[in-house]
Amino acid sequence: MGRRLIPLLARRGNKIKALVRPGSENKLPDQAQQIVGDALRAESYSDNVAGADTFVHLIGVPHPSPKKAVQFREVDLVSIQAAVGAARNAGVKHFIYLSVAHPASMMKEYIAVRTEGEALLRASGMSCTFVRPWYVLGPGHRWPLVLLPLYWVCELLPRTRDGARRLGLVTLGQMLNALLWSVENQPRGIQIIDVPAIRRFPRELP
After folding, report:
1. 46 domain residue, yes or no
2. How many structural domains are present in the chain?
3. What is the pTM of this model?
4. Contact between 20 and 3 (Cβ < 8 Å)
5. Tens-place pLDDT, residues 139-172
């Protein structure tokens, strides 16, 4: 998602620094200044955060599933702990966190870790935007399309309507526009962009 977001940000005149793992430098778009470091170790990149007004955190275990509970705590949680410390110490004014829709009866460990991340940010004193998708449709991630008829039915029934909307599907394009809008619209305090809000973003921002 970060690789797709960077060109959109650059096109609108933003200057971008992006953290990249050693050996993955060639995967980063040319529009971003490369910061080679370890997302789990703030000291590996914190010196480069100074001067930034917005920090976008997109790090997480790929293809989340209930079997990855340990990885969520070792990667997702540790990376947000490191990032909050680095951003706060650098005087960052706005932190954008890719969280997850909740509550939900499944993916409890994943939701628990993302909720802990939100709590860290709430206590940080920074203005924050929490973007809360459930499942993002995109290349290699289209199998939930078969669930669309079920979603339609659930959204029609009063008993299941709220849950179906909160845990609905969003597209990669909608997510990118939600993140792009978040960068350009710093809130006062905490701002939450949930699934219904993500779905309202147009295909192209003005």
Report:
1. yes
2. 1
3. 0.92
4. no
5. 766 666 667 777 778 788 888 888 888 888 899 9
